[in-house]
Amino acid sequence: MTTLHSSQEQTDELQQFDEMPIHKHLIILRRHLIKVVAMVLGLFLCLLPFANHTYQLLSEPLRRQLPVNSSMIATDVTATFLAPFKLNLCVALMISMPFILYQIWSYIKPALHQHERSITWPLLASSISLFYVGIAFAYFVVLPSILHFFINIAPESVAPMTDINSYLTFCLKLFLVFGFTFEIPIITILLILSGLVSTTTFVEKRRFVIVGCFFVAMFATPPDALSMIMLAIPMWMLFEIGLLFGKTLEKRKLNHE
């Protein structure tokens, strides 16, 4: 009886959602957007006093690699203010990401069936966790290795002195690339669950996937072999992890059918 009652409630909820006028959808969406903006703005203001310290943490891998007589520089008058300011905003967005995903989930939840709800939230949670893991991997493993490589190949007559804005742009690009790269298992699972691609097809085309990983890494990373390998290999491994979970879920889906 409980299951039937729950199913009836879900059916009524879906029907109400489908029959809802467009302006009510927009009102609900605006409510969620206001919450997201308030959260990001609140975090941004709370973190603002620590903006310079945050930039110090970001620049630590570079400062550790620089020669004794070298330092970071600001080639623009406003750079000393804008660089920590922009980083502070990015950090606020990253910290707010679970809340943002929860608001997205809350908005689309009424339009989902029970089996879709049961898998959507774990996928969202896994997605944001993998995104954070990708950023951490980029900061602690990839960034120091890349900086060490580029600084040590500089000619002896050249003193490396990186602009703080350029360094921020470089780091944010690197973090985004690795953050989104670590979403590969989620993308693989979604493709398998949606029926767009089967696990058999993925296995048959594995060699093309591997080549594709190196092709993407070649354009997404700085122009050196080390960076390319440090992105391509994790992409391949993450694909294999996604494929492994996809096979398990595909078998479970077939057993239920």
TrEMBL record:
One of its GO terms (cellular component) is TAT protein transport complex. It is a multi-pass membrane protein. The chain crosses the membrane at residues 33-51, 81-102, 123-147, 167-193, 205-222. It is found in: Cell membrane; Membrane. Pfam families: TatC. PANTHER family: SEC-INDEPENDENT PROTEIN TRANSLOCASE PROTEIN TATC (PTHR30371), SEC-INDEPENDENT PROTEIN TRANSLOCASE PROTEIN TATC, CHLOROPLASTIC-RELATED (PTHR30371:SF0). This is Sec-independent protein translocase protein TatC. It comes from Acinetobacter apis.
